[in-house]
Amino acid sequence: MFQQLDHCKPRLIRNMTDTLQTLNDKETLRYSRHILLDEVGLDGQLMLKRSTVAVVGAGGLGSPALLYLAAAGIGSLILIDDDVVELSNLQRQVLYKVNHLGQNKVRAAGKVLASLNNQINIITHTQKLDDTNSALLLKNADIVLDCSDNFSTRYSVNLYCIANNIRLITGAALATQGQLMGFDFRQSDSPCYGCVFPQSSDAPVINCSNAGVISPLLGIVGSMQAQLTLNMLLGHFKGNVFITFDALSLKQQHFKMTKDLACKECGGYE
């Protein structure tokens, strides 16, 4: 019995590898508009299929990001959130419907995403990410999207990505202002989230719950996070980026980021 299982294991691994190297007929049709593009093509679509992307936070930013990543054919999506769907979420968290009220977000999101694309792998974690579990929850991720709504989670994600040389895409939206930041920690001179926003215990807690947010802004920033993910995976973007977006004027601004050698988060890594 043991010998038979051992004999079958290489065949199973080989079959899985073969699957990741090709598109079946349904996948070819599903992704045909991607395959037509010189910027994606068949090789690019296969790259997306082989990729694993973790999304921390399945709320206002995570909703549009996850929908587009699933539709685009990211092979494995890791969803991390410990919250439940509430009525006030439906103003901006477009993954959810009234029938999802009271359900855990990642479980509801997993069902919605599976109904959108049943040919990808969806992994859900009903936990809040912190320094003690980040290695377990983010295991195997090629890129991490920080779509969280609190600074403690943001700094935990930042630290994990620094330590493991993983690319990080952070989004934020409050009132009528949005931010997109991308970091490539495979580069030794990359700044980090802490270089731009150092931790401070004196900082007031301001979020959507007490300051509000205009709903389409989350869709814009979350979609930009998804697009930057594809750009990175397909080799169309390297380095770091910091963009702000004003929802009222529809204007973007780009800022240059530099590594802070005194940063408590990344100052010591080379």
Number of separate strands: 8
Please tell me the overall pLDDT.
91
Count of discrete structural domains: 1
Sheet with most strands: strand arrangement: 3-2-1-4-5-6-7-8
Quaternary assembly:
single chain
Task: Please summarize the sheet with the most strands.
Answer: 8 strands, mixed
The CATH H-level superfamily is NAD(P)-binding Rossmann-like Domain
Give the N-to-C terminal Cα separation.
49 Å
Radius of gyration, Cα only, in angstroms? 19 Å
Question: Which descriptor suits the 3D outline?
Answer: globular
Low-confidence stretches: 1-14
CATH class, please?
Alpha Beta
**Count of DSSP H/I helices:** 11
Helix share bin = 25-40%
Classify the fold: give the CATH topology. Rossmann fold
Structure explained in plain terms:
An eight-stranded mixed β-sheet has the order 3-2-1-4-5-6-7-8, with helices on both faces. The protein has one domain: NAD(P)-binding Rossmann-like Domain (Rossmann fold). It contains eleven helices and eight strands. Helix content is 40%, strand content 17%. It has helices at residues 2-20, 25-30, 32-35, 41-50, 62-72, 105-116, 134-137, 151-164, 193-196, 208-211, 215-233, and strands at 52-56, 76-80, 121-125, 143-146, 167-174, 177-183, 241-246, 251-255. It starts with a helix and ends in a 15-residue tail after the last strand. A hairpin with a 2-residue loop joins β5 (167-174) and β6 (177-183). It has 270 residues and is α/β, with parallel strands linked by helices. The relative contact order is 0.13.
